[in-house]
Design goal:
- This protein has about 270 residues and is of the alpha/beta class.
- It folds into two domains: about 30 residues, no CATH class; about 220 residues, 2-enoyl-CoA Hydratase, Chain A, domain 1.
- Helix 4 runs parallel beside helix 5.
- It is globular.
- The protein binds zinc ion.
Length: about 270
């Protein structure tokens, strides 16, 4: 379910091109602003390590379930074998899967935190992502800690077929249990959050936040237009459009995310 264009990687250098406004901007300037464009406020995709550093108290993150990996249940081959693609993503990112979960603190508050990393298989959700997210929700329930997730996903992982789709029901069931215990769950959607992740746990938050100008949706524009035989409004899958239409509760700049999460958790607890 990947339907956005692949962007060419920006070479390391003094300048970089902004994907939002196409301006050449100082890399250092962008980095200092937590990978946000100084010209247009475009929020670049960042790694899970950046998320941990930016949103959590320093040194507080303790990872859980780090060793779970997929066993390629369908022995899927399309072009390159799925197992080779996994190996290549592991070598590129050092990650074993597209989500990292653990216990952490935000402004001193104990939480369970789960964040996706788009670099690993386009942040797609297969059995491992579903299982790890479910376990994170179960840990939050057991410890009575609020759950905070950060999504960035191309949707369900097609190389694991229907087993990927089953993760949608499984994660939602675990979150429903958390809900029945009145433990807060905050979902942060980042660019892009699409497909089966939008259609399951990312949309289940008691509060749903998003970064500015993120693309959030289920199917892509072309698929919807061809299905409903209508032209869709400009920007209909952006955070700003979705906030206007009640799908999101708030758009939060990256620099304000930590304090916003902390104050929401204090309010909800
Ligand atoms: Zn820009």
């Amino acid at each position: 379910m990947r339907f956005f264009r692949k962007k060419k990687p920006v070479p390391d250098g003094v300048f970089m091109k902004c994907d939002g406004c196409s301006e050449m901007v100082y890399r250092k300037n962008v980095e200092e602003r937590l990978w946000v464009c100084p010209e247009c406020n475009y929020h670049f995709r960042i790694t899970v390590n950046d998320r941990i550093n930016m949103h959590l108290d320093e040194g507080s993150f303790k990872e859980i379930d780090a060793e779970i990996t997929t066993n390629d249940p369908l022995n899927f081959v399309s072009g390159d074998a799925y197992s080779d693609k996994l190996k290549s993503d592991y070598e590129k990112t050092g990650l074993k899967e597209a989500i990292v979960c653990g216990e952490a603190r935000i402004e001193g508050i104990e939480i369970v935190f789960a964040s996706m990393d788009f670099r690993f298989r386009g942040g797609s959700m297969g059995c491992v992502v579903g299982e790890k997210l479910t376990r994170a929700a179960e840990l939050a329930a057991e410890k009575a800690y609020p759950l905070v997730t950060v999504s960035s996903s191309g949707g369900a992982r097609m190389q694991e077929g229907a087993l990927s789709l089953m993760q949608m029901a499984k994660t939602c069931a675990a979150l429903q249990k958390l809900n029945s215990l009145t433990i807060p769950y905050i979902s942060v959607m980042t660019h892009p959050t699409t497909g089966g992740v939008t259609a399951s746990w990312a949309s289940m938050g008691d509060v749903i936040l998003a970064e500015p100008k993120a693309m959030i949706g289920f199917a892509g524009r072309r698929v919807i237009e061809q299905t409903v035989k209508e032209e869709l409004p400009e920007g209909f899958q952006t955070s700003e459009f979705l906030l206007q239409h009640g799908f999101l509760d708030k758009i939060v700049d990256r620099k304000d995310m930590k304090l916003t999460l902390a104050s929401l958790i204090r309010y909800l607890q």
